[in-house]
Amino acid sequence: MFHIQSFAFNPFSENTYLLYNAHRNAYLIDPGNFSEDENQKIAQFISDNNLSVKKILLTHAHIDHVLGLQWAYDRYKVPVLLHETEQEILDRNPMDANRFGFFFKPFEGDIQYLCEGDILKLDEDVLEIKHVPGHSPGHIAFYCNAQDFIISGDVLFEGSIGRTDLYKGNQAELLNSIRTKLFTLPEATKVYNGHGNPTTVDFEKRYNPFFK
């Protein structure tokens, strides 16, 4: 059984997640830790709970979701998994950082690619990969059927959707991703998103103004 620990990090209040199980094995998802205090906060949680990080997973590679990526890779020495189409977004981060007025080194490390329908197994716990483009071209979500939750990144928010005015964003594509990949899940499915509070498929189908 997965346990979910979230952290709100960096000036963008990005949600970083740790999924871990009874064997103390873990996935680190979207490491947005930016300051030394934030680095220490996540490292301390991992240490205090005797967790072994097995992989770093990215829903997508916008800079607010990868500010701690190099730190996490260097510390835990595990591969980084993302959709192949998202590699271009990851490679653009030094340029995007410059627009925000700070320096960001290109990521250096072991990258592996995921695609629609792939399965990740952490001992007996399973995540299914769903490709949900629109906010970014290679955006993916991590779905746990056994526990009715999905880590959705910046696709669907409480009462809103991800922005589509960034590089290669596409609103029609995003709305289609939500309708065909998220709204087809059981209505009780809990949606853990990239910013703000979690929500449910049922609540968003009923009340999200983008689908009225």
Molecular structure report:
- The protein has 212 residues and is of the alpha/beta class.
- It has a single domain, classed as Ribonuclease Z/Hydroxyacylglutathione hydrolase-like (Metallo-beta-lactamase, Chain A, 4-Layer Sandwich).
- The chain is built from 6 helices and 14 strands.
- It has a 6-stranded mixed sheet with strand order 1-2-3-4-5-6, covered by helices on one side.
- The longest helix is centred in the first third of the chain and has 13 residues.
- It is globular and about 45 Å long.
Describe how the helices and strands are arranged:
Blueprint (H helix, E strand, L loop, with lengths): L2 E7 L4 E7 L4 E5 L6 H13 L3 E6 L11 H8 L3 E4 L3 H5 L1 H8 L10 E4 L4 E4 L2 E7 L8 E5 L4 E5 L2 E2 L2 E2 L9 H12 L7 E4 L5 E2 H7 L5
Parallel strand pairs: 3-4, 4-5, 5-6, 10-13
Antiparallel strand pairs: 1-2, 2-3, 7-8, 8-9, 9-10, 11-12, 13-14
